Amino acid sequence: MKANYSIAIHGGAGTLIKGKMTPDKEKEYRNILQLALDESFKILQNKGSAIEAVEKAVIIMEDSPLFNAGKGSVFTADGTHEMDAAIMEGKTRNAGAVSLITGIKNPISLAKMVMEKSPHVLLAGKGAMDFARLHGYELENEDYFYDEFRYQQWQELKDTTRFQLDHSQEKDSKFGTVGAVACDINGDVAAATSTGGMTNKNWGRIGDSPIIGVGNYANNNTCAVSCTGSGEYFMRGVVAYDVSCLMEYKNLSLKEAADEVIHHRLPKLKGDGGLIAIDARGNIAMPFNTEGMYRGKKTAYNDSYVAIYSN
């Protein structure tokens, strides 16, 4: 039986209060989210794979300066950009991830290259960059990643020991990690997640996004998950895999499992954020415990929308 192919995306969760953002800026966000949904959904409509669809959705968001991934990545304490990404498919549970990479226009595509062309799952730093060059990746100039808002955001924290998640400030700003989950016509699921990390981060800090089972996970028997939020708490809660475990071992539905993790388990660790998840029947869950989450979904049964706020 053919699956109800579907896709869901997110562009970060956090302090997103209606009225805090200008109408023009809100429209920009909605337009990019809709574009990412539409272009990735075309792949599923044309019997393409879930892995192709999630990569496409994330690339579109990485190419926009609106999100903290790819072009819009935040500045580190050294005034550079260190990006992380992960991708996973649910049929064989093959996965690829990269961390602490610089100059790569689309980190999610490099993560996919790691999955397809290496015997490893996660490559970081110099080794990941050597792998990128080996496979013909050309590095973008630093100017490509420069964004005035991101720069001013960094100036507020520069030369201090403080760092911040994008979603920690109540103002008209750009918010974190991007991700996508999809189910294709064959019932195969996949997940992809990409981020620029924390503003003013130091010491090679790595969050949840490139860690399989934490910020990204896919298993045809349960679900595919992409997370966004306070990465340290998502790591402590092994959040993406926790959703899958609740489905596998407690027989919870996708919605029940996702809600349990985001609304009950994560808050006990004082963690905030959200996730998007999909199962092999095309069901979608998008819970978050913050004021809002950039999100959207599109399904074969004409259920489609883009949203930002909790209501």
Automatic annotation (TrEMBL):
Keywords: Autocatalytic cleavage, Hydrolase, Protease
GO molecular function: hydrolase activity, acting on carbon-nitrogen (but not peptide) bonds, in linear amides; peptidase activity
Superkingdom of source: Bacteria
Coiled-coil regions listed in the entry: none
Keyword tRNA-binding appears in the UniProt entry: no
List of catalytic residues: 177
One Pfam family of this chain: Asparaginase_2
Residues at the site labelled Cleavage: 176-177
Gene3D superfamilies linked: (Glycosyl)asparaginase
InterPro entries associated with the record: Ntn_hydrolases_N (IPR029055), Peptidase_T2 (IPR000246)
Designated name of the protein: Isoaspartyl peptidase
Naturally occurring in which organism (per UniProt): Christiangramia forsetii (strain DSM 17595 / CGMCC 1.15422 / KT0803) (Gramella forsetii)
Gene for this chain: ybiK
